[in-house]
Specification:
Helix 5 runs antiparallel to helix 6 (about 110-130). The chain has helices at about 1-5, 10-20, 30-35, 40-50, 90-110, 110-130, 140-145. The chain has about 150 residues and is mainly alpha-helical. It folds into two domains: about 1-70, no CATH class; about 85-145, no CATH class. The radius of gyration is 19 Å and the shape is globular.
Length: about 150
């Protein structure tokens, strides 16, 4: 395994890699058992080792291999295994703004399915922020609490 780690560039990527695929990592998902018991094919380990930096999502990682088809990254927001914390609120708010901007652009182009998709993601982020007890707009919260 040391040879696998040695091929990864950057200490930060190495740390993240070990946290996901290293011994004792807390992980869930279809490939979790394969990672834990070392039965992941060498080609998959090679791909993950070489391309681990590409697996990062906005709030986590996607270990889907190219042979498994395209990643559906937005699904992690509704995945039963997805967890977030108040520390991610700024990223959630930024993503919400992007989704709202994309919905407006799609509406101007008449792409109703894209409007629906972006609004659903924005609504899901609103729910996550509410569940975290975080305001969707922190500047409004500051105005409401000022003397």
């Amino acid at each position: 395994m040391a040879l696998v780690y040695a091929q990864i560039s950057g200490q930060e990527v190495l740390r993240d890699y070990k946290a996901v695929v290293g011994p004792g990592a807390t992980i869930a998902g279809p490939a979790a058992d394969e990672l834990r018991n070392g039965s992941l094919p060498d080609t998959a380990v090679d791909w993950l080792t070489t391309n681990f930096f590409k697996t990062e999502l906005e709030l986590g990682r996607c270990l889907r291999l190219p042979a498994e088809g395209p990643c559906e990254c937005d699904l992690y927001l509704t995945c039963a295994k997805f967890v977030t914390t108040p520390e991610y609120a700024p990223r959630l708010r930024a993503r919400r703004e992007v989704e709202q901007t994309l919905a407006l652009d799609a509406a101007q182009r008449g792409w109703e399915r894209e409007v629906e998709r972006h609004r659903c993601t924005s609504d899901r982020i609103d729910k996550l922020l509410a569940d975290l007890g975080q305001p969707a707009h922190p500047e409004e919260e500051a105005e409401n609490t000022s003397p």
